[in-house]
Amino acid sequence: FWHPEEELAALPGVSETVVGYCGGSTADPTYKSIGDHTEALRVTFDSRVVSAESMLERFFEMHDPMPRAFTGTQYRSAIFYHNDAQAETAAAVAGRQASSQAKHTSIEPAGPFYRAEEYHQRFLAK
Fold it and tell me: What are the Peptide methionine sulphoxide reductase MsrA domain coordinates in residue numbering (predicted)?
């Protein structure tokens, strides 16, 4: 069972992980009313310790996305970026991945991030 929050939170340089919802237009999404959002993980890290490129490479090592036809928007594979440098890095790392990973992972602007309910935070640790 793969749970990215726990694995990424344990990496050197990662200071915080927050489970939430991103990439949609529905106001105030929740797990039961997610609308068109995607379940997401916001990772805060010190780029002096670990690079964005390394974080994205780790994401692709851990993650095997399902084709979008099976997932809709809630469980789709996506990388949400906040600036042009992040978009370029995500595209470069995705371009080096196996075709199925890159093919089924969207790279798009982050937009608003909504923190998920508390029971979703550090789920396995609880």
Answer: 1-126
